[in-house]
Design a protein that fits this description.
4 helices
């Protein structure tokens, strides 16, 4: 997750530089929308790729820390907190 957020931050910091490459052939708002959609799709892909890499590492290591009973309980609490945060942001 932190790597995905750093990727988004780097992309947003370079947004002004990308806007300098704008040519008047297309509408400025359309160009901005395309840039934001590119960011969104890149973030989704980055999150999925890093998640898959973490899952591969966790499954390939014998007695991985995530599969121990005590750690499964901690991960369950994190998942519940993330679910409550998602539900709360939906209604605000």
């Amino acid at each position: 997750m932190p790597a995905t957020l750093l990727f988004a931050l780097a992309w947003l910091l370079s947004f002004e530089l990308m806007m300098k490459s704008y040519t008047p052939r297309s509408h400025s708002k359309t160009y901005q929308a395309v840039l934001y959609m590119t960011l969104l799709m890149s973030l989704i892909l980055m999150f999925l790729m890093l998640g898959a890499a973490a899952a591969l590492i966790a499954c390939s290591i014998r007695r991985a820390w995530a599969f121990r009973a005590a750690n499964r309980g901690l991960l369950g609490l994190d998942a519940a907190a993330a679910l409550l945060a998602a539900i709360g942001s939906r209604f605000s």
